[in-house]
Design a protein that fits this description.
This protein has helices at about 1-20, 40-45, and strands spanning about 55-65, 65-75, 80, 85, 90-105, 105-110, 115-120, 125-130, 135-140, 150. By secondary structure, it is α+β, with helices and mostly antiparallel strands. It has a single domain, classed as Jelly Rolls (Sandwich), CATH 2.60.120. The strands form 2 sheets. Strands 1, 2, 3, 5, 6, 7, 8 and 9 form an 8-stranded antiparallel sheet that branches. Strands 4-10 form a two-stranded antiparallel ribbon.
Length: about 150
């Protein structure tokens, strides 16, 4: 009798749990792309070569009102302008190469594997004189249209 009751309960649960699962409300998914993504960075960088000059190459691969994910390369010899963001925190993960970042007023060496979190309102900068640096930037929330870069004098 116990087996019949347990089996009946299990069958009832399996049959009704799918029916009880809520559908995703319309408009909840508001990102671009609107599907989950998986990116192999080695493959991405193979198809997005170095700029070969001191400039920034950047592609936003995911964006929503809450965050943005960019895959980037700073070409050898690049020096960005010191700046801060008024809206977004920026999280930077160095995935290849090396350089320096202006963190809390000091130039600090960075290399692959380093992770830097920069709260909005903090002045920061980056430079890489010896080689390209490959990095990921995550902005939370996403920067407004036209950007959120407020340059300051070095």
């Amino acid at each position: 009798m116990k087996k019949i009751v347990l089996s009946g309960f299990a069958l009832f649960y399996l049959m009704t749990s799918a029916g009880l699962a809520a559908e995703i409300p319309k408009g909840l998914v508001d990102s671009k792309p609107d599907q989950a993504i998986l990116i192999n960075l080695d493959e991405w960088y193979k198809t997005h070569p170095s700029p070969g000059k001191p400039e920034l190459v950047s592609e936003t691969v995911f964006a929503s009102p809450r965050s943005a994910l960019m895959i980037r390369t700073g070409g050898k010899g690049r020096l960005a302008a010191s700046h801060y963001h008024t809206v977004a925190d920026e999280i930077v993960l160095i995935v290849g190469g090396s350089g320096e970042m202006l963190i809390n007023g000091k130039w600090t060496p960075v290399r692959a594997g380093d992770l830097h979190a920069n709260p909005r309102g903090n002045i920061h900068n980056s430079r890489n004189s010896n080689e390209d640096v490959r990095f990921i930037s995550i902005f939370a929330p996403q920067q407004p249209p036209g950007g959120d870069i407020n340059a300051v004098k070095d």
